Amino acid sequence: MSDSPEVPDLAAAAPFTRADVELVERRCLHQGFFRLEALQLRHRLFEGGWSGTMTREVHCRHDAVGVLLYDVERDSVVLVEQFRAGALEDPASPWKLEVVAGLVERGELPAEVARRESLEEAGAAVGELIPLHTYYPSPGACDERVTLFCGLVDSEGLGGVHGLDEEHEDIRVHVLPFVRAWELLQAGRLDNAMCLIALHWLAGERASLRARR
Questions:
Q1: What are phi and psi of 51, to 5 degrees?
Q2: What is the per-residue pLDDT across 179-192, written as a single tens digit (0 to 9) for each?
Q3: Left (φ > 0), alpha (ψ -120 to 50) or beta: where does 208 sit?
């Protein structure tokens, strides 16, 4: 007899949906560039019945797009470096190496944002744009969804400092051989979800991308 735990058949289970949540009250706690809401709600339980009414605070943000810029011919990636207020107390540095990223405004498509931000932040014109994943970075506290792409570029001549003055952007562009970027990831220097997910994807797909040349 096997001692392995039984794996639940998620496909056979009827999933809960938005209809299984009763929203009692929604209240704005703060409205700035982002919004903080307090929700009073209850929801159905796995073993039947309903939960008690609870309060949950939700950070309401625009959806976001991330783009890992990759030069197939040179086997290089393009990363951007900038100050991040959320990492102010980071023991190493609040300046972070990241993929190009931006927020989705009303009426925009993620692919449009990907191409626009690649030009604004890195001066890079994207050729083929490959969708990777869409995910919630922190669904317990934030409603933001992130769409990740890999954008194929010619990295020759890229570098320098970019960004929009009106958005207080001061963005330094780095062109790195893939192996160097992977070393930085392994050393803990690329410590944000977009970088981690996108570079792990590229590590698996890099050979097939280069074989298309």
A1: -75, 165
A2: 999 999 999 999 99
A3: alpha
Who contacts 110 (Cβ-Cβ below 8 Å, separation ≥6)? 63, 65, 104, 147, 149
- Measured distance CA(131)–CA(154) in Å, rounded: 19
User: CA geometry: angle at 176 spanning 173 and 178, to 5°?
Assistant: 140
- Mean predicted confidence (pLDDT) in 168-196: 95
Q: Where are the domains of the chain?
A: 18-60, 64-211
Contact 89, 186 (CB under 8 A): no
Which CATH number applies to 64-211?
3.90.79.10
Express each pLDDT in 35-79 by its tens digit: 999 999 999 999 999 999 999 999 999 999 999 999 999 999 999
Contacts of 42 (CB under 8 A, 6+ apart): 21, 22, 24, 50, 51, 52, 53, 54
Q: What is the mean pLDDT of residues 145-159?
A: 97
Q: The whole model's pTM is what?
A: 0.89
Residue reference for tokens 């309401």? 60
pLDDT at position 1 over 70: no
Catalytic positions, written as ranges? 167
40-66 b/e with 16+ CB inside 10 Å = b?
eeeeeeeeeeeeeeeeeebeeebbbbb
- State the alpha helices, DSSP H only, in 1-41: none
C-alpha 177/C-alpha 74 separation (Å) is 8
Across the range 110-134, mean pLDDT stands at: 96
